[in-house]
Amino acid sequence: MGLTSGSAARYPVLVIMGISILFLTSCLHLETDIRLNKNGSVELSLTYTITQDTADFGRGFGSDEPWPLPLTEKDFRQQSLRFPGVELKRYRVYTISDGSERIDVRLKADSMESLSDYLDLDISLRGDIDSGSLVFTLPIAEDYSDADSGIREAIDSIIGDSLFRFSFRPPAKPESSEPGIIDGRTAVLEITLSDILYGRAPVTWEVSW
């Protein structure tokens, strides 16, 4: 079974989410878990958290959902209409102990190419389903280092230790993860939002199995 490549990212969903949320939260932890099945379908879990103040601020403007989020449940469903190869399986909002709200999203795609198009991210597969590799071109923020120093200092103080965690479970046990680590049957990469903004993050993440 051959594998195809996804399109290049233009306005990556994860970057839009990060930049939109960071101005209203002291810390953003975004977890993206991708699982490739033997039949070529893909399952994705996306989890992120917003503070109580941010959610209440949005509801003050009449929003039924935490705001300002670039991707509410309605947005996910509309995106599925544009890309019928991807289905929204779950969208849940949970209140955690400190009053923050955790958003938990589950998607199922008929292929990695469909998921790549849906997310507008560059995620490609090489080889075949039994022995191949995933190449994920990570989102970047151009010219951030050249921005006004006062603006950068303000943003840097807001984002703190905000972390992006990507994990990928291929149909067979992974043999390598460059960069990142292998944890059992899953490859894991963790990068800070600061590293993305300053261009210190890796350009690509490649997992072979």
In short:
This protein has helices spanning 13-22, 52-59, 73-82, 112-119, 149-159, 193-197, and strands at 29-36, 42-50, 86-95, 101-109, 122-127, 132-137, 163-169, 176-178, 181-183, 186-192, 204-208. It has 209 residues and is of the alpha+beta class. The strands form two sheets. It has a seven-stranded mixed beta sheet with strand order 3-4-2-1-7-10-9. It has a four-stranded antiparallel beta sheet with strand order 5-6-11-8.
- Termini distance? 15 Å
Q: State the helix count.
A: 6
Structural class estimated from helices and strands: alpha+beta
Poorly predicted tracts of residues: 1-27, 57-63, 65-70
Physical arrangement of strands within the biggest beta sheet: 3-4-2-1-7-10-9
What does this protein structure show overall?
- The protein is an alpha+beta fold and about 210 residues long.
- The protein is about 25% helix and about 35% strand.
- The protein contains six helices and eleven strands.
- It has helices at about 15-20, 50-60, 75-80, 110-120, 150-160, 195; strands at about 30-35, 40-50, 85-95, 100-110, 120-125, 130-135, 165-170, 175-180, 180-185, 185-190, 205-209.
- The strands form two sheets. The chain has a seven-stranded mixed beta sheet.
- The longest helix has 11 residues, at about 150-160.
- It starts with 12 loop residues before the first helix and ends with a strand.
